[in-house]
Amino acid sequence: MEKADTIALLERGRTLSTPALRAAVDRLAAPMDTVAAYHFGWIDAQGNVADGDGGKAVRPALALLSAEAAGAAAEVGIPGAVAVELVHNFSLLHDDLMDGDEQRRHRDTVWKVHGPALAILVGDALFALANEVLLELGTVEAGRATRRLTTASRKLIDGQAQDISYEHRERVSVEECLEMEGNKTGALLACAVSIGAVLGGADDRTADKLEEYGYHLGLAFQAVDDLLGIWGDPEATGKQTWSDLRQRKKSLPVVAALAAGGEASEQLAELLAADAKSSDFENFSEEEFAARAALIEAAGGRQWTADEARRQHAVAIRALDDVDMPQRVRDQLVALADFVVVRKR
Predict the structure, then answer these.
(1) CA spacing 20 to 30 A to 232: which of 14, 76, 242, 339?
(2) Cα–chain center distance at 328
């Protein structure tokens, strides 16, 4: 598939799921409905209608393709697409507050505009809505889909807890980092690409294989995110320069560099250990963060992470070989996986 076709696939996911997503958000009591609308980019901070960046919409696209993989119409996957998108945005609202991120998608984050209390409440409300959207379908398949969503949500929260705890440790193993990222990113993508199939009547074996694809796609997605978190262009990512280094995140490039051994690795370890004790860390200059990024690259952390993204991408594609689905749907799932690994934001 051409890149334009992949963009069209993402746009289809956004177009089909957004009306149902808006209808779900409209159920929230004021002012939570307005705050959520701001987060999704539908209005600006003053309440005026806006056409903000609502994100890449990878998860809704996967949920609709998932339904088609089971032989159902794409529309069957819409409640699943909405539910997964609500859980994803619940996590973003809370993560931004916990990480102290002031920018998302080129705009001030919810907690920065509306305060921490509303960021927490709206996140909680989106999480509750996600389960409501599925369960109100009242079918056996909806119950099965909800079980998968709640399991994925719990793993996502596990991953965020691991991520926070790792920031305060000098050393984290590559295996621990992959486990954390598998929970934080892989679990929900795995759910997105199975939930539509479950709603379409697929058996557990088919759903499990689709989850396997989604899980490894999530690891590839996060590896690319980790690269962008250090070397991404702020104009493209909507975040500060050296974003993950500013938060002392033990992301894959950092962890791989520290595990590599050698002079650059040892220098990096010394610097990061000193950073953890520094009272002036928040006032570091651009040059100081650039120096840490250069050491990560010299130790091989950047290249290792890029290679890992490609490896996880290959494992994801192989999982599709065990799913009996229309060739067109398989081609589209492969194209989306390719898109995830080559993106710049």
Answers:
(1) 14
(2) 25
CB 255 within 8 A of CB 174: yes
Q: DSSP label at 26?
A: T
What is the C-alpha to C-alpha distance for residues 341 and 302, in angstroms, rounded to an integer? 14
Give the pLDDT score at 51.
83
* % of residues, the chain, pLDDT over 70: 97
- Give the pTM: 0.92
> What pLDDT is stored for residue 284 in this prediction?
83
Host domain of residue 247: 3-342
Distance CA 253, CA 181 (A): 13
Q: How far apart are CA 345 and CA 330, in angstroms?
A: 24
- Overall domain count for the chain: 1
What the block records as the tokens of 198 is 């479950």
For residue 43, the 8-state DSSP code is B
Residues of the chain with pLDDT under 50: none
Q: How far apart are CA 268 and CA 101, in angstroms?
A: 24
CATH number at residue 113: 1.10.600.10
Q: How far is CA 245 from CA 58, 220, 288, 292, 302, in A?
A: 26, 20, 10, 8, 13
